[in-house]
Amino acid sequence: MQIRFKQEQLQKEDIDSKMRLLIDPDNVFWGLIDREKMDNQAEEKISVLGEKFKSNLDQSMRDFRSKVDVNSVYINPTDRCNANCPYCYIPARMRRSGKHLGTDELTYILKKIDNYFKGSSKKLKFKPMVIYHGSEPLLVKDLIFSSIEKFSKKFNFGVQTNAILLEKKDVKFLKSQKVSVGISLDSLDKKVNDYTRRSQEGNNYDKAIRVLEWFKGYEGLSVITTLTKYNLKGLPKLVEFMHSKRVGCFLLNPVRITRNSVLRLKPKDKELTKAFLGAIKKAVEISKKSKHRIIIGNFSNIILGIVAPSARRLMCDISPCGGARCFFAITANGDMVPCGEFISLEEFYAGNIFKDSIKKALYSKQFKKIRSRIVEKIEECDVCNYRNICGAPCPAESYSANKDLNVKSPYCEFYKEIIKYAFKLIAEDKIKYLFRKEAFKNVKYEYYLKAG
Questions:
Q1: What is the mean pLDDT of residues 167-178?
Q2: Fewer CB within 10 Å of terminal CB in the chain, N or C?
Q3: Beta-carbon neighbour count of residue 122 at 10 Å?
Q4: In sequence order, what are the residues at sequence separation of 6 or more whose Cβ sits closer than 8 angstroms to the Cβ of residue 436?
């Protein structure tokens, strides 16, 4: 895939009543000026600096967006789940009666992934990542724990779980193996949480709270809160709570509209934006006063998209997204899909791991179609100044709603507002409170223009 950049001057956009942004949307070169002073000389200096670095920055962004650079694989070791969350992207029939992987099957998959990376022309700096995802992977706990022990020298591992089946001894094991662990908690209001995180036992809240205490201070823990119209009011208190449990990374993810039935859960843009920014403000306030910083992972990723675009790790906020390019997913049946969000969309299945090669899947028409989705092809996104910060996520969401990949995000206005707020925090020198203290130790300026 070739991405062609437009040749255009720096675009201007007002961030608020005080600040104006000058930005090259193609490569995210930018500068901020004081609107009250309206300093034409400052604009000229920024433009000259932009021209100086344009070629290098264009190439860097082009490489970042174009390369097929797989470093992670998501594996669903079972189709089944012990919960019934109303926003789940996996079809209910699979969650009720899908299959489990057997020991030999999972071993075959892991060996095949290992052989793929061994045969890759590009050598990774770190061990590739295998994430056990779901449905609920701990329904086959013994299977995945034994595989983690067996393949610990080959891969770094992650587990995403609803926490219902986690026991204290499991937490001890996961810590000893340095496994990245993600759990879900939607609200500190038990009724709200257990409505959106429904389980057969009806106690997701109690289990998640208990597990958070067991993991307290573990840097490899992340907590995902799915934002719906039901849980927006309590976000600042939830941020405080996560900080008290010394959670390594906290993600506030707007609910994905991958099924029509989920639309009823979607919050209004203005309400979502107000609540999300309230959570960010609380995170900054807490982190300024504490040795431990509470990291809102998806907002920090937006900031990285501004200050260090190619350093982003959450690959939803770029186009093409990371699905079918930096990672892919494997179902319990062995089907390879661009990412888990596509499991209900069989037209994007790209072969089966038990029959086909990984390389064949990566260069299949199904995966290439996902990689062809770029903001330059999406109406409105193509002229948006934030197009390479936001990335118009998510292709599965766009396709599910419209049967068309090249449609802007239903959260377009939300993303614009939080990006503006990110620029505001950058100008106020507050972004340091939204990253771990060691995060910027090795970061160097590629360009810098001192005010005045």
A1: 98
A2: C
A3: 11
A4: 293, 295
Question: How far apart (Å, rounded) are the C-alpha atoms in residues 410 and 265?
Answer: 13
Angle between helices 103-119 and 141-150 (to 10 degrees): 40
d(CA 85, CA 199): 8
Which tokens go with 184? 């879900």
The whole-number pLDDT of residue 1 equals 61
* pLDDT-derived band at 7, boundaries 50, 70, 90: low
**CA–centroid distance for 143 within its chain:** 27
Q: How far is CA 6 from the centre of its chain?
A: 27
Task: Give the predicted TM-score (pTM) of the model.
Answer: 0.94
Instruction: Report the half-sphere exposure of 119 (CA within 13 A, side-chain side).
Output: 9
Q: What is the DSSP letter of 260?
A: G
In this structure, the number of other CB atoms found within 10 A of the CB of residue 168 comes to 11
CA 401 to chain centre: 20
For residue 351, is pLDDT > 60?
yes
> Which residues, including other chains, have CB under 8 Å from residue 383's CB and lie 6 or more apart?
none
User: Which backbone phi and psi does 60 adopt, to 5 degrees?
Assistant: -60, -45
**Which of helix, strand or coil describes residue 404?**
coil
Does position 319 have pLDDT exceeding 60, yes or no?
Answer: yes
331 near 75, Cβ under 8 Å?
no
- Which amino acid type is present at position 309? P
Q: What is the pLDDT of residues 380-412, one digit of tens each?
A: 999 999 999 999 999 999 999 889 999 999 999
The burial class, CB within 10 Å (0-12 / 13-18 / 19+), for 187 is buried
Strands across the sheet with 221-227, in order?
Answer: 249-254, 221-227, 180-184, 156-161, 129-132, 72-75, 327-330, 336-337
Q: What is the C-alpha separation between 255 and 276, in angstroms, rounded? A: 13
